[in-house]
Backbone:
């Protein structure tokens, strides 16, 4: 199985690299190739997906990992390529002056790194390969109308009538039209609602047995959960907490989860911007901080190897959290008090703030510090236009991930992603899994330590 998967990835990467040597992406036909270890060559199939429009950037990264590992399992039996859904119209992308649709994954992530895990292709390249602006089948993933049977979880999926109003309609020509990432002429040939209670990996059986289409799209892919990818036994463990359902964490992470996560290396142009800020303002370099990034397939760091730059980093979530989680969000004054204690404990004088707060709140926060130096990253207009709100958020995460000590915000996926980045870099978990407390909390529970597994 490993040989077949490896061949598919190598073959696909070779074709993609060759195609980008020309102005236009060449149409390729992988089924014309053969390989001794693959037996009879099979046509490459394409898996597309989308997520509920209300989900944010960092939850969407989590859904990518679920679907990516589904593609990994599919490649054990036949060649599948994951089509990366263009970014756009996200809730937290508030900059109205920016054109933030049809944003490619290469804007944010290193595609060569992703391809070390599974074959991936940008949506525009997929359209070129197909030779037509079409998705052959869409399955709209939905809950079961009756809920869990007898209140218990069980793996199942069935084609059902649609429960909610779906964002696709059949036109007079019998073509299904809807939102395809801002590409107006794209249509689907077939559409159905699929009620599903399943781990992502278990979608493999459905895709292998129920469709032979060249391209299949899973709409609302967040409906499937990580699961344990057959590496750990009890599905019931994952149902103990809603957080575990969302993030697929149940005491011990699977290696497949972490392989997918480690492959999500930020694009070099964004890392370079963050690294320049670290050097200029925070006296931080990878060599001094022991955070040199190598190929993720070869990088296995022990906890405590990374030292981090001589600063504290803080993710201070405001805006919607001020009412959505008001009991867990500290006032600016109380946040400053906790940061001062961390500075004293770590014998540091610099703080990096990653926050959605406005400039007035940031200046108010700074006013509580007399000796410490407080920084936040402010992008130029050129960087904002080129890399969008998502790129600016990644730069914030990259800088925050390299600090000597990190403290985040209660149940924030933005904080979760920073914690994972620090696990990959090799930080001591005691410096990573921390959060700010509010004045109203009698007991301030700190985040669970979701440690990396190789």
Residues:
């Amino acid at each position: 199985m490993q040989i077949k998967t490896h061949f598919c990835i190598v073959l696909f990467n070779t074709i993609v690299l060759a195609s980008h040597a020309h102005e236009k992406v060449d149409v390729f036909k992988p089924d014309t190739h053969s390989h001794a270890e693959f037996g009879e060559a099979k046509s490459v199939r394409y898996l597309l997906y989308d997520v509920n429009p209300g989900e944010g950037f960092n939850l969407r990264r989590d859904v990518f990992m679920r679907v990516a590992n589904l593609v990994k399992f599919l490649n054990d039996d036949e060649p599948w390529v994951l089509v990366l859904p263009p970014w756009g119209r996200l809730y937290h992308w508030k900059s109205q002056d920016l054109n933030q649709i049809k944003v490619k994954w290469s804007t944010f992530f290193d595609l060569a790194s992703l391809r070390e895990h599974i074959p991936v292709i940008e949506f525009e390249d997929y359209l070129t390969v197909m030779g037509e602006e079409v998705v052959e089948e869409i399955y709209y993933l939905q809950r079961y109308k009756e809920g869990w049977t007898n209140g218990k979880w069980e793996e199942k999926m069935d084609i059902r009538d649609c429960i909610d109003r779906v964002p696709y309609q059949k036109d007079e020509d019998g073509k299904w039209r809807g939102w395809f990432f801002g590409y107006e002429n794209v249509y689907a040939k077939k559409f159905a609602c699929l009620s599903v209670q399943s781990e992502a990996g278990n979608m493999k059986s459905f895709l292998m047995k129920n469709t032979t289409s060249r391209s299949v799209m899973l709409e609302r892919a967040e409906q499937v959960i990580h699961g344990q990818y057959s590496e750990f036994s009890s599905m019931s463990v994952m149902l103990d907490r809603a957080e575990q359902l969302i993030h697929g964490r149940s005491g011990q992470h699977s290696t497949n989860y972490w392989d997918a996560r480690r492959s999500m290396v930020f694009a070099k142009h964004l890392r370079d911007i963050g690294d320049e800020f670290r050097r200029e303002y925070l006296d931080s370099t990878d060599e001094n901080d022991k955070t040199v990034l190598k190929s993720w397939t070869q990088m296995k760091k022990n906890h405590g190897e990374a030292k981090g730059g001589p600063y504290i980093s803080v993710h201070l979530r405001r805006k919607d959290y001020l009412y959505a989680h008001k009991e867990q969000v500290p006032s600016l004054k109380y946040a400053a008090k906790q940061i001062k204690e961390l500075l004293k404990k770590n014998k540091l004088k610099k703080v990096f703030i990653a926050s959605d707060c406005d400039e007035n709140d940031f200046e108010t926060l700074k006013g509580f510090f007399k000796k410490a130096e407080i920084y936040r990253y402010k992008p130029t207009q050129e960087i904002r236009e080129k890399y969008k709100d998502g790129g600016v958020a990644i730069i914030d995460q990259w800088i925050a991930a390299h600090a000597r000590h990190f403290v985040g915000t209660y149940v924030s996926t933005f904080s979760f992603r920073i914690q994972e980045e620090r696990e990959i870099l090799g930080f001591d978990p005691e410096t990573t899994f921390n959060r700010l407390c509010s004045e109203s909390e009698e007991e301030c529970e700190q985040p669970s330590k979701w440690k990396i597994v190789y």
